[in-house]
Amino acid sequence: MRKYIILGLLLGILLGLTIWMTSLGSVGIFKMAPPMKVLSATVRHLQIVEAAELLAITIGIPIGFLSTRRACRFISPVLIGTANVGQTVPTLAFIGIAGAVLGMGYKAAVIALLVYAMLPIIRNTYAGIRSVDPALKAAVKEAARGMGMSMLQVTAKVEMRLAMPIILAGIRTSMVVNVGTAAIAGMIGSGGLGELIVTGIAVRVTQLILQGAAPTAALAIILDALIGGVETWVTPRGLKALKSAQWQQ
Amino acid sequence: MIKLKYVIKIYPDGTEAVKDFSLEIKKGELCIFLGPSGCGKTTSMKMINRLIPMTSGKIYIDGVDVMKLNPNELRRGIGYAIQNIGLFPHLTVEENITTVPMLKKWPKTRQRARAEELLKLVGMDPQTFLERYPSELSGGQQQRVGVARCLGADPPILLMDEPFGAIDPITRGKLQDEFLKIQSKIKKTIAFVTHDINEAIKMGDKIALMQEGKLVQFNDPATLLNSPKNEFVRNFVGADRVLKGLRLYRARDIMQEPPLKVKVGDNPVKVRDRMKRDMLKWSMLVDGQNHFLGWITYADLEKAKSLREIMVPPAVTTAPETLLNEAMSMMFNSAIGNLAVIDDQEHLLGVLTFDIIRNILGKENSGNQKRFGGSKQ
Amino acid sequence: MAVNLHAVLELPGLINKENIIEAQLMWILAWNYLLKYPDKILEWTLQHLYIILVANASAAVLGILIGIFISREGREQLADTVIYLASIMLTIPSLALYGILMGILSALTLPSIGFLPVVIALTLYGLLPIVRNTYTAIREVDPAIIEAGRGMGMSEQQILVKVKLPLAVPVIMAGLRQAIVMNIGIAAIGSYIGAGGLGQPIFRGIANYRVDLIIVGAVFVSLLAIIMDLIMGRVELITTPKGLRIRGRSND
Asked: What is the reported pTM?
């Protein structure tokens, strides 16, 4: 309950700030972005994040899944190691290199975000599936095969379901990081809310900066809370009870 | 000496954990706080060193009201051992043992000497163990260090909360024996919490049996077993309370001289005549130094050329410290039904028979055995 | 990373042959820059390290103090709230937080660009892992150990200093490690508001289309993060009390 109040309060402040700044119209010789511009920047921001995230999920989960297979056990340490090290690489480095190699713009931004977002997803998929109790897995597989399911169907149904909370946590991390990275991508001309902030910083007008910064922060908080909600919803009830018990302890 | 007077504990949520509890533990006495879980035994004990504040009542240690003392100073003067041991994992065995001496700012050399002395006391080699960490010790060793730690600054009083609770039964029995041996040397005043009636009977000079926060019966173990005050005590002690009484004795307390001790070189015929005269079914064979060799039965003697060839070697023997209940189960394993009591060098000290035990049990029941002097049926 | 990036990009046919040749040229240019201006790179690196040091030192001090404060018995609700606030703080994108801080600082007539807003932002970001780890580590100390300490007459202060904190150190260090690695990346973005550091060549490169600058900055900031991660991993191990590092070897 307390958390919802804090969340609501924060979002209220951030959105209020956005509306207030937009309603200023102009500061000195600088015109504030009109409401439609703020809205379209937000949509653009979401587009970048969404495109990168969806691609990262469709590529990252199969890679993470495959690296848990026995046939891939030779590459998986390298793969997971790369994912781990890759996560320590700053986002700006990704954006910079993508901009340098692919040229500035939307495409470079999406690709940089995609690569960076894939890392936590690969890692968590791998860790999630590895954490499924092998005894349980064996028993369920036996039963499922008896019912005539193929091996692939079984793994998809059982292992993915049990690993889902951990995979979702990976998606949540990558999503939140992406919102921020997409803002930085504003510097390589991808558009989105980052552009408003960048413009503001360039001319050193606080109101302009806030007009971009406040909705960006709000967006990140909303997305984080949303996926957090899905996470609790997807966690099998047995696991949930365990989690809260540990917390109370 | 510890004295609790009309002690009451009511928790903020209204639970009355301890109701009007009065008790006196004499100097050098090991007093057991016994009862089912939730009976308030641990709470009572923890009020002595003020880990749990009492709601009302008075607790005196050597006549001083504990509430008048600084709680930390008070606790440094009272040894404290708990079920989960609670050794500090980041400190060495030595640092663990010298926790209280360190708090009392003893000089370093004295701390070291004390740690060595205590490790020896609990049967661990100082050279090997002083520098070890708790994670390098077995459960039993950890428990020993726990005991050594609570004796750190040589406090006159110990509080022990199921100190042997977390280990396997075999090691537990061994540690109990060792602790009793130590206690006979150091003579501390001890409040000892347990829910295990067997442990209580074995360890306690006095037992305070509690139920729902009240003291139900406060007696020595024999009286508790023989004269349960009410239904609750009778149930708690158990239907086998007569057998439990066996734990009050050790082999040396009731063993008897062998009815006939024969030497290796003795003439079989003479031995046979002697046994026939005394109507003995068996005798015990020893060598020149009184080392026990085995049993001689009357039936085998008839065609025997020497005693050695018909001797039945003992399947089991026992030490004088063995508790009677254990001795009795050994007797069921002995071919002859009797049990030889021997010392460390295998010298024959005496013998236990079912007859002797039956006598003891019988006396216990009738309540006129010497040890049970004051008790009533 | 660069090699992998190429591989990933080539697959969907996103770049053509010419682009690859161009990319190889970029690396050569970057190498030349490195040979020509090592002093500049060193300067940026030191600036970067200085910012990280100041910010994480303050985050560590503040975070550990807050962690200790909220770990006291009866402050569970407060702890919940504090950790939740810190975790929300972490979701706010760095560029947005810099922007908001610039707004606040200029309203307070303090320097709104450069070192100050970046250090404040990094401190705020660094708080969550440190507060959370300190709190969790202290709360997870075995209650039996604490009771033993209390029962032997340790004051609450002594229990904290002699028992809880030594046992919590490895977990706190893990939090600090997380904070440092994360902050190296965020500090790079701070170059945009004039704090200096290894972000500077990247932004300058983006603004002037100087690819060599971008690559030099990106590579060195990545190296810095990876090296600091390794160093902190080592520190984590060293600061773990010896008794916690040894496992098993029990003999009966």
From this structure: 0.76
